[in-house]
Specification:
Layout: H1 3-43, H2 47-50, H3 64-96, H4 101-115, H5 118-130, H6 138-162, H7 166-174, H8 179-190, H9 192-207, H10 211-215, H11 234-242, H12 247-285
Helix pairs in contact: 1-12, 3-6, 3-9, 4-6, 5-6, 6-9, 7-8, 9-12, 11-12
Length: 286
């Protein structure tokens, strides 16, 4: 066998193994989604959006309390996390640069935070904001989700702002615009699609978190909007219902899983579409 034939054979073997691995991975994904859709759609009903949690056996039982609680947790985490992430990413790109030691340290810490298990963040927030006060609370859950969200938005904002051509900044400076106006009206505007993509990905990431909420906001089987007390969330409610021995609660768990999965899937698809739009616009401009 010649050297060329050996290389061709190795290439074919690697291609077959890679394709087989991809097929296996996609098959498992489709299997999970199929089971989720079948059981989730079968469990959906109008009662889910109308009624709160109820003991097993009651027909008037739903997920209203969990849906509202999840909306509060995600809404406030987004309200706090988006400005922090965007402002920190703007500092890294526009003021820190690539040679600043402080900026590079922040980037490294952000990368570590992005890869840190969410249960570690939940434990940290529990030790700082739950244990000293002696009770769980919605605010503790919001803080945990915000900590998870900020590094994602920060890194995305930093990367997207660095993609804005330097010539645009120089042109704005040549017209006499101060630095803050260049950042606000030129740089951020030019990277708004990419930043929005990072925000959507950050929201999608925290929307499916369960472990940090178990340590912070805990759960409530009834509707409660007081964030200083334990508050229901869709993820924890789904976990409790799906692992219960009661069939009606298990159906509610499937419904919660379906609703949450479709929400996260929609956010991810929207983020990918915006990112592709950003890439197409950048390629056309070049």
């Amino acid at each position: 066998m010649t050297h060329t034939e050996k290389r061709v054979l190795i290439n074919k073997i690697v291609m077959v193994l890679s394709s087989l691995s991809a097929v296996i991975g996609i098959s498992f994904l489709l299997w999970i989604l199929t089971i989720l859709v079948i059981n989730g759609v079968d469990a959906l009903s109008w009662n889910i959006f109308v009624f709160e949690g109820a003991p097993p056996g009651y027909e008037e039982s739903g997920l209203k309390h969990a849906l509202i609680g999840q909306a509060l947790l995600i809404g406030f985490a987004t309200l706090f996390g988006v400005p922090l992430g965007v402002l920190a990413g703007t500092y890294l790109s526009e003021y820190g640069g690539m040679k600043s030691k402080l900026a590079n340290i922040i980037r490294d810490v952000s990368d570590i935070m992005m890869s840190a298990p969410s249960i570690v963040i939940g434990s940290f927030v529990y030790a700082i904001f739950v244990a000293p006060f002696g009770h769980f609370s919605g605010w503790a859950g919001i803080i945990a989700l915000t900590i998870i969200m900020v590094p994602i938005i920060l890194r995305t904002t930093d990367d997207m702002l660095q993609l804005v051509p330097t010539t645009l900044r120089e042109a704005a400076f040549a017209l006499g615009a101060p630095k803050y106006k260049v950042i606000m009206q030129v740089v951020l505007r030019g990277a708004k699609t990419g930043i929005l993509t990072g925000i959507l990905l950050g929201v999608a990431r925290v929307s499916g978190e369960t472990a940090p909420l178990l340590f912070t906001s805990f759960n409530d089987n009834f509707l409660n909007t007081d964030l200083s007390e334990p508050i229901a969330s869709l993820t924890v409610t789904m976990f409790n219902y799906a692992t219960s021995p009661y069939e009606d609660w298990q159906k509610l768990g499937w419904a919660a899983a379906f609703i949450l999965s479709m929400f996260i899937l929609t956010l991810n698809i929207l983020g990918r579409v915006l990112l592709m739009k950003r890439k197409n616009t950048s390629s056309k401009s070049k």
